[in-house]
Amino acid sequence: MRKALCLLTKSPNKVWIDFLNSFTEYDIFIVIDDNSVSYIEMFDLSSNIKIIQIDNNVCYHKQYTNCNSAVGFSDVISWDKALYIMSEIYVEYDNIWFIEDDVFIHSENTLLNIDKQEQYNNADFLSATNDIIVHNDQDKWNEWWNHWVNIYDKIDLPWSHSMVCACRVSRKLIDKIIEYKNKKKHLFFIEAMFNTISLQNGFIIKNPIELSNIHWRTPWNKDEIDTTKLYHPIKNIEDHEYIRKKT
To answer: InterPro entries from the entry (predicted)?
Structure first.
């Protein structure tokens, strides 16, 4: 089974490059948001990593847009670019890990230990949670999730959502996302898109304990990290290095 990891970042960081260069079981892609400067000088820092810098117009033309525009980001960011390349260029992977750059991973084994568990072999989507709503009552929508306003006109009920700062997506799910994109001419808010399209297609969604610390704003103590789990947010890249050296 071929596996890939896509790191989603505004700009490439040498700490992340050096860390991911140690991986041997995943093909690594670093997908850059920023196009204000060229990062071509970083492309050859590692032969094991593909650093991807794409003009936003490519995604507009291919209709890979709006993954995070619902919460104030541009129509095209690294998420849209990552879904474009993994949907249309690098199509040979059975499963793809998408990881934002403020997610802490202790080592490659943290991911391998998830992937090697039999219970996740056939999962189409691995995420922190899978919070479902089926009711038409808008009062219940407000109780369910404040971002329902960003999806109600994008896709019919039932809906589901999760934090997806770290998640694993199957090729089967990618194909269904492409179907949605081709029909609607855009994507939609990632915190609902993966879960909802999985749910509506009867796909297998699992929530590994290792992803249970993918939160929105929890202030994690860098001296109390369980190295078997992923953490979000840990925004200071120096803290990533500190934790790895300490443990």
So the answer is: Nucleotide-diphossugar_trans
Domain 3-246 has CATH 1.10.3470: no
Q: Can you tell me the distance from the alpha carbon of 175 to that of 25, in angstroms, rounded to the nearest whole number?
A: 24
Token duo for residue 203? 């796909």
Q: What are phi and psi of 77, to 5 degrees?
A: -135, -170
Cβ contact 228:110 at 8 Å = yes
* Cα 236 versus chain centre, distance: 19
User: At residue 80, what is the residue type?
Assistant: D
Cα dihedral 236, 238, 240, 242 sign: negative
Give me the residue spans of the domains in the chain: 3-246
What distance, in Å, lies between the first and last C-alpha atoms of the chain? 30
Token readout for 23 is 């991986």
Average pLDDT per run of 10 along the chain, which is 247 residues long? 93 94 96 93 82 97 92 91 98 98 98 98 98 89 89 95 98 98 97 98 99 97 98 98 94
Tell how strand 159-161 and strand 131-133 pair up: antiparallel
Q: H/E element holding 156?
A: none
